[in-house]
Amino acid sequence: MIESQPPAFTQDASDPKRISLAGSWTLDTAMAAAQTLRKLPDSVDRLDASGVLQLDSAGVLLLLRHAAHHGMPADGLKFRDDHRALVATIEEVSDARPPAKRDYGFVAALERMGMTVANVGNDIVALAGFLGQNLVKIARLLRQPRRLRATATVYHMEHVGLDAVPLVVLLSYLVGAVIAFLGSTILRDFGAEIFVVELVSIATLRELAPLMTAIVVAGRTASAFTAQIGAMKSREEIDAIQTLGLDPIDLLVIPRVLALLVMLPLLTFIAMTAGLAGGVTVGAFDLDIPPQMYLARMHETLEVRHMLVGLSKTPLFALVIALIGCLEGLKVQGTAQSVGERTTSSVVQTIALVIIIDALAALWFMKMGW
């Protein structure tokens, strides 16, 4: 066994910028090694450790951090051949230090806000580009119908449409009932409980049914799209698709977009029916309004334009949900953590954008008198 010797260095007389190291550079001599490195002249840009007798991970880490701190070139450190495997291993973790504490000052808050705004802008640009790419390829289907993946489209129609019907019906029915309860509580003081019919009908057809359906689909379907495509991306299946000469957009994105464009308006119509049924139920059991009278009042006062306004927003909701879900899946970096992050991001983005679009559409229709 080699006896441990204190770390030492000698300066090359012919080349003052070159230092030769000697002795033992191990955990036992770490303090002495650190003091030795502090004694080195600042002009030194090369360290020759080939004369070191003993070297372990602590010594390698000290030398690597000293070289990085003083800006030495990549070839500024020279080790013995039997030490290179250890050095290569330590280099991979030499920078794995605990992250610096987060600054909660005002300037740091402004910096984080600016970065968030920039990221949002980049996401909007990416979504706009992805939308254009899909519109071009959907238009290409008119000239080349053989590119349409009919089987995949029908499969996704079943997944995003039929499988979501029970949940959409239950939530829409309960929301319609809740709106009727709230409306009757206020209108009862004025003896105008009959106007609950108009309140539930107009609110359900114009806003609640389209918005609730889009939010349910955003949470259920956008996350599924992101997870499915992200898992394929992490397993390099999308690279394999491109290697085979196939287009991932045609194969993975367009069937999902078309399926959602077809099924979301149908789901919204079902949600409208369920919401109106919730109002009828509350009217019959709590407001003493018989179903025949409720339906007659709704037939007299309700206009078809309210339903058309609600349905007119659903294709835009479907496009946003499908595109964001697929785009976030394609952004996955290849790790399980990335899949989870992108899935969360897709749900947040779709729900937020759906609510923003619905608010803007409500203002626009109100200003237009529709």
Topology, element by element:
Elements: E1 8-11, E2 18-25, H1 30-38, E3 46-48, E4 52-55, H2 57-69, E5 77-78, H3 84-93, H4 106-143, H5 150-160, H6 165-187, H7 196-234, H8 237-243, H9 248-285, H10 291-301, H11 304-312, H12 314-330, H13 336-368
Structural class designation? mainly alpha
Helix content: 55-70%
The major beta sheet can be summarized as: 5 strands, mixed
Rg over CA atoms: 33 Å
Q: How much strand?
A: 5-15%
Secondary-structure element pattern, one letter each:
EEHEEHEHHHHHHHHHHH
C-alpha end-to-end distance = 92 Å
Counting DSSP H or I runs of 4 or more residues, the number of helices is 13
Please report the total strand number as a whole number: 5
How would you sum up the global shape?
elongated
The unreliable regions are: none
Mean pLDDT, nearest integer?
A: 85
Number of domains: 2
